[in-house]
Amino acid sequence: MTPSTNLRLPAEWEPQSGVLIAWPHAGTDWAERLAEVETTYVALAAAVTRFEPLVIVVADAAVHAQAETLLREARVELARVRFVELPYDDTWLRDSGPITLKGGDTTDSRPDFQLTDFRFTGWGGKFGAEQDDALVAGLVDAGVFGHAAHKRIDWALEGGGIESDGAGTILTTWRCLVQRHPEQSRKEMSAILRDGLHAERVLWLDYGYLEGDDTDAHIDTLARFAPGEGIVFQACANASDPHHDELQRMAAELAALRTADGRPYQLHPLPWAQPILDNGRRLAASYANYLIVNGAVLVPAYGDTADDEAARIIGTAHPGREIVQVPCRPLIWQNGSLHCITMQLPGGLNPAGIG
């Protein structure tokens, strides 16, 4: 179907019809620590299905059987789960999954949706991504999204690289997008983002990064829109930490931003976890990489003393929602966290009618 022209990218705190993930297996980069990371996926699935349906992409029948066995053992409500068998290179569905725009009701009273399918290049060609780049089309062909339109845009963009307030403002980082499109100016990229995401304006951050992050500073590791004109962001108060100056400059940038009506945003700085190392390599333990679902926020926990304070602050920024901590230390071994492995689906899309 042809989508209407009143499309927009919903905020993550708006009603959802489900969450999309892909199960790790021995053919992905998780192979070396597969059993360990599966514990996080089980905890994530258990948390999501308490609040809404879950679509799990599996590579083949064996991966399907393994995932279902682990979920049954954890007493996950499988009636709220749909498995879809498709090939994939890895499991970071925030970046290879659909960026779903939502419009008003159509003539048959169903909301209008567009699965916006930007080109996925493996974070600027760092990793092979041919199968991941075809994932959205595969899900569409599998009938997961019913009546939604599918629009391919031949321009590299990952879902983790953008934040939407649901009201026409996109927040992103220059460090990431200039790496993907070094030949384009900020003005040119802003125009492409506004057009592709049906947005009214684009806000840019020039500062902010995390060691161990190979996304070139995705915004969802740094700063997140919150209801009531809020922004939750990863801060660093430790002056001896190598991130301190950069994140302080990012905090100043955020303080200088204004809403579409000219007001300052309400800022919610997150605490800083102690350095987590893996064979001497620092891992990117960001508390900003949380996932909002219906009635709750799923918050990364890293086994750090700052975990509970981070959860409290995120709860303050998202009042009225249950806060559920999910153990995410296994995820950061592969340079991402909770938000990175998930993609929410807007309310009304109803993936395959599950739930």
Give your account of this protein's structure:
It is a single chain. This protein is an alpha/beta fold and 355 residues long. Helix content is 27%, strand content 26%. It has helices spanning 34-49, 61-73, 93-96, 122-125, 130-133, 135-141, 174-180, 186-197, 244-256, 307-317, 329-332, and strands at 16-22, 54-58, 81-85, 99-105, 111-119, 149-156, 162-164, 169-173, 201-205, 223-226, 230-234, 266-270, 277-278, 281-282, 291-293, 296-301, 322-327, 343-346. Strand 7 and strand 8 (169-173) form a beta hairpin.
Provide a brief overview of the structure.
The protein is of the alpha/beta class. Helices cover 27% and strands 26% of the residues.
Secondary structural class: alpha/beta
CATH domain class: Alpha Beta
- State the total count of DSSP E strands: 18
Principal-axes geometry comes out as: globular
What's the SSE blueprint?
Layout: E1 16-22, H1 34-49, E2 54-58, H2 61-73, E3 81-85, H3 93-96, E4 99-105, E5 111-119, H4 122-125, H5 130-133, H6 135-141, E6 149-156, E7 162-164, E8 169-173, H7 174-180, H8 186-197, E9 201-205, E10 223-226, E11 230-234, H9 244-256, E12 266-270, E13 277-278, E14 281-282, E15 291-293, E16 296-301, H10 307-317, E17 322-327, H11 329-332, E18 343-346
Parallel strand pairs: 1-2, 2-3, 5-6, 8-9, 11-12, 16-17
Antiparallel strand pairs: 1-18, 4-5, 7-8, 10-11, 13-14, 15-16
